[in-house]
Amino acid sequence: MGEAKAAGGWKLWAVLALPPLFWAGNFIVARASRGDWPPIALSFGRWAIALVALLPFAWPHLKRDAPLYRRYFWRIVLLTLPGVAAFNSLVYWGLQSTTATNGMLLNSTIPLLILALGALFWGQRLSLWAILGLLVSTLGVAVVILQGSWERAAALDFASGDLIIFAAMVAWALYTIGLKLFPPEVNRIGLLAVQIALALPMLAPFLAFEIASGRVPHWSPASVAALVYIGIVPSVLAYLFYTRAVALAGPARAGQFIHLLPVYGAILSAAFLHEPLHLYHAAGFGLILTGIVLAGRGK
Questions:
Q1: To the nearest 10°, the Cα dihedral for 18, 286, 29, 177?
Q2: Residues of the domain holding 80
Q3: How many CB atoms lie within 10 A of CB 98?
Q4: Is the pTM higher than 0.90?
Q5: Residue 46 pLDDT more than 60?
Q6: Are residues 106 and 165 in contact, defined by beta-carbon separation less than 8 angstroms?
Q7: Number of helices and strands in the chain (H, E)
Q8: Max CA separation in the chain (angstroms)
Q9: What is the C-alpha to C-alpha distance for residues 102 and 266, in angstroms, rounded to an integer?
Q10: Is 35 exposed, middle or buried (0-12, 13-18, 19+ CB in 10 A)?
Q11: For the chain, what is the domain count?
Q12: Cβ(134)–Cβ(173) under 8 Å?
């Protein structure tokens, strides 16, 4: 924390507050460009650009950690599938049929999903507070997916896009838990570059199928700008800023700022996408955040 105090002032706040803003932009731009970019093409293009942009930062770590990558190769492959190949592909697929606001609200469930999956697969014990938090947040997710309608709940009428995005959040939670399989000496920036390089051939057959089915990108200055933004800002800059935030302020404080994502998202969605905000959005977010706070009491 000494370094954090030395950095101090607005610079530290910027490092903490910018990553969730950049990640919110990912949802906004993906939703806005859904008519130009099919989901797999957007995911593939994003990671291709991100790999090129990340290499200057990752190259020293790639050379140093090459023996570790060989040692943990199958672990890297196993984590690449949910965390890099599947996560954003599912998000972009879901955003074809649901709002960016809903997507970002569902993103807030990740801390609770990590707790739940940690209990299932790692034998982590959950306190009563954590269990209560999971139940409350699950209710919040249901409110968002069902749009606050008891009639939809009774008819089991779920929004397909919301369910797809929720599946993406499960994939990311699995990826986050799986990072424990790697010792601290494996640099995370270099590891991300390796995973992106592996994810591209994983996505290639799905991209070929998407193109063969007639879903091709519509090239224009606006669509190219959207792809470049997604490939650089939320993919590389947010990651670099976030790792810096963790170094300066610690993981707990940096993690708290992720809860700004749906706040940013609601404002940006209303401003740029003209998505209406409903009472169920506020109720769902309130329940999800309450669940996170309750679960935190059980640490």
A1: 70
A2: 2-296
A3: 20
A4: no
A5: yes
A6: yes
A7: 16, 0
A8: 58
A9: 9
A10: exposed
A11: 1
A12: no
